Amino acid sequence: MMQTVSHRFITVVMFALGLATLSAHGHAQVLVTDFLGRDVSLAGPAVRIVSLMPSHTETLLAIGADDLLLAVDEASPQPAGGELPRTGSGFAPNIELIVSLEPDLVLTDAYSGVHAQLDELGITTFAGTPETLEAVLAFNAVVGVLTGREEAAARLTARQEAALEDMAQRTAVLSAPLVLVELDPTPFAAGPGSWVDDLLRLAGGS
Predict the structure, then answer these.
(1) What is the full DSSP assignment across 126-137?
(2) Which of 99, 164, 187, 198 counts the highest number of beta carbons within 10 A?
(3) What is the chain's pLDDT, residue by residue, as a tens digit (206 residues)?
């Protein structure tokens, strides 16, 4: 049902799943590649995370890693029963607040330059978000490695794949209406090859 993921994202997942080593202290060292092609290295799975992207926050919550979150951006969901500090916009966050929380990992977007600001301050960042449905599913594994929650990430992927397969089977016999998905009023709409377009087609639209 799914097309092959891009070569670049296959590289990301291979780093996440295959290149963990042991540090001098015996902890599992984490080495992945982010969506900008940068190596992201941690001495061990992250335990103090700031998420500046709602999609990243949702993935962390879905694998039960809410206990690792220190703060989230203004658009992210909050953990059940909790109220984390808000950092403001993910594209122009409160840098002072982030630094004061002493995170060992910050999840950012790829285009705002926030990752560069934090890198200069010695804070490890993972930049970018998956843009296709295949990449979204593969990215679960990367988040699992970054947090040491690999099994939970695998279970999440299995649930999502099963739901997508079920949806595809239910809509296979339906005629496909033409659909415009407006993401914001600038105007900015979902285009071919995006994860929104992938989901739309699986749901029977075009």
Answers:
(1) EE----SHHHHH
(2) 198
(3) 434 334 444 444 544 454 444 444 445 789 999 999 999 999 999 999 999 999 999 999 999 999 999 999 999 999 998 899 999 999 999 999 999 999 999 999 988 899 999 999 999 999 988 888 788 888 999 999 999 999 999 999 999 889 878 877 777 676 666 665 655 667 665 556 665 666 666 665 55
